[in-house]
Amino acid sequence: YADDTIVVSDKEADFKNILQDFGLYCNLWKMKINYTKTKVIVFGAKQSRYKFTINENEIEIVNDYKYLGVLFSRSGSFLQCKKHIAEQANKAMYVLKKRINNLDLPLDLQLKLFDHTILPILTYACEIWGTGSIDLLENIHSKFLKSITKCRQSTPRYMLYAELGRYPLEITIKCRILNFWNKIIQSPESKLIHLCYKHMLQSRKTFKWTETVKSILNETGYTYLWNNQTLIISKNIGHQIKRVLLDQYIQSWQAKLNQSSKGKGYSLFKDNTKFEAYLNILPNSLRIPMLHFRTGNHRFLIETGRWRRSSIPFEERRCKFCTLNDKSDEMHYILICPFFKEIRQKYIKSKFYNRPNVIKYKELLNNTNKQILTNLGYFMKYLINHEIFKT
Question: Looking at residue 118, what DSSP letter applies?
């Protein structure tokens, strides 16, 4: 069997000769060609003026074709390929979520299942198609996270990713592209892929793939490797680049915290992007309310004030249930508001709410003591579900 055979040419006449030779070869060795599955793509040109045959059988010219699992389009764009991958990942994710819902799995295990079943679909052959925007695929990632945490669609990614210790798929894809590029330039010069790469470098045309590689190296401070590719010795350049990209992501994450009022409130207790311990310490009945409390998935005025058509200015979102005139934010209800004094005393140690401040608030929310976290979880659940916030 000679499955997945492909022939390529940059000239019409040469391509016709190749098809003729291919037909003769198959006849000589008694190999049958499946003409219904054999297709031709003419990249970057009008299809109508061409006609190609093998053994006098006309071959259909198509706009796109899947080869080795990758959807190629005549335009040279991989947008349709990304859409196809997103569809496949969505189907697989539906099955995964159905299984997760039937089991009480720790949150970190749910994330591992995503990484081992859905992520390979989202990144299959990304070394080739990973140029340009990958928002379609990042949406699948964040959709899964919001599903297993039952968070609103409006929940900022920077919060959810930080709580769960995640980072954008873009980092993985860029590293895969760099590793692939490194493999190409270190491959034997006689190898077809090396010859194709050299052609791209020497051509007067601009190729999006090589421009992407160059851009990644520039933005991570490795421009000198592009300018002198013989300097590359390490076969793990992708790992070096990944460290830089992760550092840049953390810097970007910190900037987002400072750019919004919601982010500033989150930064009072969260100063890193590591997976939070409470997510594995607490049962699902408490970890979800705690995650919702921390990420603004509640109905406190500090949050709902931004929902209305005529939104309430941030500085005017004050607590209506006490006379302190404090902002209606998370810290106020956890440590300060007199309205919840009795229930607070039941669940929170006095050292936290006596003379409350940001340092005590941060210490409480970052605690890893199971009993303290459990009590805090019950208090947060009580606050989130309180009828007073539903009116």
Answer: T
65 pairs with which residues across the strands?
A: 72
Identify the band that residue 233 occupies on the pLDDT scale cut at 50, 70 and 90.
low
pLDDT band of 1, cuts 50, 70, 90:
very low
Mean pLDDT of the chain, nearest integer: 93
Query: What are the φ and ψ backbone dihedral angles of 39, each rounded to 5 degrees?
Result: -130, 165
Average pLDDT over every residue of 78-106 = 93
Q: What is the structure's pLDDT at 10? A: 86
pLDDT at position 126: 97
* DSSP 8-state secondary structure symbol assigned to residue 32: P
Split at pLDDT 50, 70, 90, the class of 234 is low
Task: With beta carbons less than 8 A apart as the criterion, state whether 171 and 242 touch.
Answer: yes
Q: Which burial class, exposed, middle or buried, applies to 329 when counting CB atoms under 10 A from its CB (0-12, 13-18, 19+)?
A: buried
DSSP 50-77: ---EETTEEPEE-SEEEETTEEEETTS-
What is the C-alpha separation between 123 and 82, in angstroms, rounded?
10
Chain centroid to Cα 381, Å, comes to 29
Calpha distance 250→242 (Å, rounded): 12
- Give the model's confidence band at 342: pLDDT under 50 very low, under 70 low, under 90 confident, else very high: very high
Q: Which residues of 34-60 are buried (b: 16+ CB within 10 A; e: fewer)?
A: eeeebbbbbeeeeeeeeebebeeeebe
Which of 224, 135, 205, 209 has the alpha carbon at shortest distance from 178? 209
At position 288, the amino acid (one-letter code) is I
Question: C-alpha angle 175/43/195, rounded to 5°?
Answer: 55
pTM: predicted TM-score of the whole model, two decimal places: 0.90
Task: Report the chain's terminal Cα–Cα distance, integer Å.
Answer: 69
Q: What is the per-residue DSSP string for 257-294? A: HHHSHHHHHHTTT--S-SPPTHHHHS-HHHHHHHHHHH
Chain centre to alpha carbon of residue 68? 24
CA-wise closest residue to 252 among 219, 276, 225: 219
